[in-house]
Amino acid sequence: MRPLTEEETKTFFEKLSKYIGENIKLLVDRPDGTYCFRLHNNRVYYMSQNILKLSTNISRDKLVSVGTCFGKFTKTNKFRLHITALDFLAPYAKFKVWVKPGAEQSFLYGNHILKSGLGRITENTMQYQGVVVYSMADVPLGFGVAAKTTQECRRVDPMSIVVFHQADVGEFIRNEDALT
Amino acid sequence: MTVLNKSKWKGGTLQIEPAKESFLHKLAQERQLEQQRPRRDTDDKHPNAPKLLESFSKAGVENFTMKAAVPGTEIPGHKDWVVSKYGRVLPVMQLRRKKGTKTCTIKYDPSKYCHNIRRLDPRTADADPPTPVAQLTWQMNSGDDDISRKRRGEFPPYRPPKPKRTHTDVLESIRAATQARPAQVVSCAKLKNHQPMNEFVPANDKRPAQRRERARYEDSDSEEEMRRLVALEQSSHNAPGRDVQDDNLEVVGDDYLVKFGGARQKRRGSLMNQDEDDYDSADTDELFTSRKRPVPPRENISGERTAAPKRKLGEQDKGTKKTAVLSKEAEEDSTGTEEMATSRKLSLPQKKNNIPEERTGKAKRKTKEDNGGSTEMMTVHSEEDEDETDSADSDYEAMFANVTRLEISLADLQKLAQESLEKRPPPDARVSPARVPKRGTLPEDILAALLGDDGSDDKREAKKEKQKGRRVARTRLPPFRGTATLDEDALKKTDVPENTKDKSDGSSSSFDEEAKAAAAVRRPRLSPQREQKQVSPDSEELPVSRKPSLPPQKNISEERTGKAKRKIKDDDDERSKEMSVPSEEDEDEVDSAESDDEAVFPNVTRLEISLAYLRKMAKEKRAPPDARVTSARVPKGGILPEDDMPAFLGDSSSEDEREAKKEKQKGSTVARTRLPPFRGTATLDEEAPKTTGAPQNTTGESDASSSSSEEEAEEAEEAVALRRPRLSTREEEERQRKDNKRRLAAVEQRRKEAQEHKKLIQGALANLDAVTPKTGKHIVFNFDDDDEPAAVAADDSVPARDKARAAASGPRLFGSSEDEEDGDDEEDGGRFHIRPQFEGQAGQKLMELQSRFGTDERFRMDSRFLEEEEKEDDKEESEVKTSVAEDEDFLQEEKRRNMSILQGLLGHQATSAKPSAKTKTFRDVSALHYDPSREEHAAFESKADSNKKSKSARRKKREEAQKLPEVSKEIFYDVSGDLKAMFGPAAVQKPAEQPKASWDEEEEEEEEKDEEQPAPEEPSGFMFSFFGDEIQTASEHKEYKAESIQAAKVFRWQKDSRLQDSSEDEEDEEEVQQEESGAAPKNTTEEMVSSSNNFFFFRIDDSRLSEGPKWFCRSSQLEEEREEWEERRTELRQEYRKKHKDACRKLKSSQKT
């Protein structure tokens, strides 16, 4: 387990900023304690200082997970957000998409969100903007990438994709073995 | 040929025959033949047919029919021709049929069967030309999508098959399919959620697996894939004719607050508690569907609807509800919140019905049929609601639904309720603004009936304003009182003024009904507790209420006032009994308060929709509420306000003052019936006399005001608006003091309760403590052994030695071995000595050590150990510290680095971002309680002073306006006989410009005199002109208008002090403007008058006579105007909705803070 290098941090923050923008600093600079990001097994974990200290008692090869996993670095050194990061993305999300109840299931099975399933969207959403997906009952379901701007979303036909799926809470079951 | 045949040629024999015909040649020949043959055939055919016919005719057959022949008879001379049924001659057919291997022929004898021959008309066949073969294939104008292109043979460039492709292909095919069948698309769009998904899921079944695979192994190309996907999307969707009208997509702003997740969202520190979510998608689903399509099963929907908005309501009115709930006990509070929670969660109508059941259970009145009836009524009301399709009004619907629900829940007075239902005008009327005026006038009519005698007696038809004002006062008051009665808590009072404000808006429309509902609610509650006093009025009221049509309504409204009054008394009774624990009735009151609150809101909407004159009326009405707000805090004195005293005080006050004789026919009958209970309350209540005194005050005032007929117009307004303040100036302080006293008492009581509660808990805990030593006794086994010092449960060994001390020490849990050792000389206090060796970091360690060893004497840790360890500890500590410091530094540095990276990423952010200072501090609204002794609670006090001040200022201003301008005594007028000069408008102003020389000189002299004087006020001077006078009144009129607008501005959601200030400024400005306008129009009229030379009296050929009627005529067509209005109406409505939304939002936010 080690802190992220500069480059890694940059990549990571770039990805994260697509979803929560400048709210990253609220994660980095938290009033309720010192929190940090750590890299372990190519995965980025977000944890408090206390847990960090505690985790030093466990040998690296035995340590499976510590804190909250935000995602992992791929072999090509790109960062991929995991659904476990949703807890931290959802409250800080800048752009949101609400999915109709009927389309919830589809999304939770890993499908993109079609226009027909789009219940509500934050205005001024740009294309390829990271969005957090909520159910109509405001339960965060996952996150994705806006395939269309808000204006386009109004016009497109109901079968077109408006949000590309990135992660959803269904992965907790589907991807159980891979998630940490 | 034969010669040459078999001849030798170059060593070979020749075989010569005629050559085979060339194929082409043969073909040409055949074709030629074929061309010739048909002609021949036709030639053959035609001769044949006449032959047959001829032979037939010979055999007696005409036109294939043989008359008078039995079916089945053969035609002579013709084999196989028989007469079939109906006399037609037909051939017998030999049909060959293959049955398995053998073939057989079937003889079809037409005479055996009914035949159905249709004759083909060759001409018609010729008429429509046969479609050429080339055109037999037909084409569909399919779209420009892939599939159709492929059908046409245009294949897209080959793409290497990838896992993605299959998916997109599926997508596209589906898309193409839907495109090819536009109807299908429509239906999909209509069916919303489920249909498309059902279609889709199987198609995409493969996806997750693929995705997962990709997620694991080919993470890297996710971006590229996405890009490709996007490209695909674009290519497929940029096709023309794709613009599907977006119907239900909602776009929200950046500041959209997540409803339920919102709370979680705010808790940024603790993000993990998601388990609190009550997430029920089924609920939302139903909600959704019910919102989207109004399906016949309305009852269901209504249930859902009421459930759905209720949730909103729960959110929005949490603050008010909580305050309302405040007066309940803790347990009741909890049940209330439970109710709220359940109502928020449950969407099913049955469950909704359960809630009323609960409530009514509390009201001790519930029957099953009522429940059934209630559902019916609910449907009716929900239909009303559905008409208001706008989602923006859903809150209002919700509230309205709530009201009905409450009404229903107490439907044991079903008759009454039904009556009210009947009286309720057709629900649609509420929606369309065109019909709204009708509604708006409705209560007026009722009240006109109510006050009919007053109105007729008054003879002041010109002062309709006054009547209106009075009506308004009356209509508004009952519910106000309803809420006011509940204002035992000071906090609630802070809410109530706002309610009343709102109420003022709603008073014009169907508010009576709501109030009635409230009355109906109140009624059952009261009756059990009003034994003797109420029996008589009740018995009177009931028959009265059974009367049909208008009278009952009137009576009910009056009855309601009586009810409310009794209610007050009721409250007082309770208070006098010192019932600290609020009874169920109290809770019901709270409910009714809620219902009132809710009842208030729909009124607002309805009014806002209503037309201009209604609005004007509302504006006029808005002055009073201000006054009422000031005294809203007066709990009981204020409950019986002066304005409505006349309404139920029977023979006293306003009716007296007006000396109405007719009213005794009607009004007093009702009034008298109601009077006894009131007096009863008066005797019971200490404050009731005061209230009776109050109206007398007002009557005195109104007397004074009525004396001068000139002021009546003003008084009409004032009488309503200013009674309150005047009273309040006199008694305000007393009342406030009293109120404060009461509030303090309430606070005190609350504290006491809390203390009691604490005591109770303490007592319980003490009991627990007391139990422990007893149990300790059981452990003891060496009771008599004096010398055993180290007893674990040593406490009881001590008394063996020293009983007195044991008695003193009582239960001793913490007796240590030291105590034993030190013996008797060390008192109990000794064991609480601070031991220095256990202090500090090292001491703590020592302590831990000690605790590990237990109380063993041998291992007692004293200060010696401490000294030695100190250094080591220090070392260790310093090491640890340094490491910690290093860690800290490291982390800090990391953080800094992160921040710098972030800054580089985002560009503009400040480094050490403060955790947004805007974070709201949570304030428990339910715990909020107005405490007059606390300084900061002054913020909760409604500012009566500013209003008063403004009012007084306004009044002063009005008086000023009313007053004739001061004229210096030195000016005198030389009255000449010239009428023109006399009636002409003030020439004083511009005498120099006046060309008239006759009195010019004199005027000039006067002018000079004027100029000599300072003449500070009213530069316009005295004007003796009818027209000038008119102008003045006009300006006055204008002032009124401006005022009313200003009053209208003081909404609750606009209670920014800034706004009020601005309004004040406006007033000032208006004053200035008034002065200016006082001068400016005069000039213009002066010119006009002078030019036209009009007199006050009309002449025959007066231009005014011709002009005047034009004002009454319609300038444009009625149709056009209507259209114009129609157009404008939508705009207005939208405008209103926007405003209303804003207001709601503001209200919400203000409630939250």
From TrEMBL, chain A:
Superkingdom field: Eukaryota
SUPFAM superfamilies: Pre-PUA domain, PUA domain-like
Cleavable signal peptide: none
GO cellular component: nucleolus
InterPro entries: NIP7_N, Nip7_N_euk, PUA, PUA-like_sf, PUA_sf, Ribosomal_synth_fac_NIP7, UPF0113_PUA
Primary location recorded for the protein, binned into one broad class: nucleus
CDD domains: Nip7_N_euk, PUA_Nip7-like
Single Gene Ontology BP annotation: ribosome assembly
Any one GO molecular function term: RNA binding
Compartments (UniProt record): Nucleus, Nucleolus
UniProt keyword list: Nucleus, Ribosome biogenesis, RNA-binding
Coiled coil: none
Ranges for domain PUA: 95-170
Known partners and oligomeric status: Interacts with pre-ribosome complex.
Protein's job: Required for proper 34S pre-rRNA processing and 60S ribosome subunit assembly.
Family recorded in the similarity comment: Belongs to the NIP7 family.
Protein name, per record: 60S ribosome subunit biogenesis protein NIP7 homolog
From TrEMBL, chain B:
Coiled-coil region(s): 1115-1142
The protein's name: Nucleolar protein 8
One example of a Gene Ontology biological process annotation: protein localization to nucleolus
A GO molecular-function annotation: RNA binding
Nuclease among keywords: no
GO cellular component terms attached to this protein's record: nucleolus
Biased composition, class Acidic residues, residue ranges: 274-286, 383-396, 583-599, 709-718, 817-828, 867-877, 1000-1015, 1062-1074
PANTHER family, per database record: NUCLEOLAR PROTEIN 8
Segments crossing the lipid bilayer: none
Biased composition (Basic residues): 465-474
Record region (Disordered): 30-51, 143-167, 196-227, 265-396, 417-605, 618-758, 793-969, 984-1028, 1056-1088
Domain of life (superkingdom): Eukaryota
Biased composition (Basic and acidic residues): 30-47, 204-227, 354-371, 489-505, 556-578, 728-737, 748-758, 854-866, 931-948, 958-969
Keywords: Coiled coil, RNA-binding
UniProt source species: Hippocampus comes
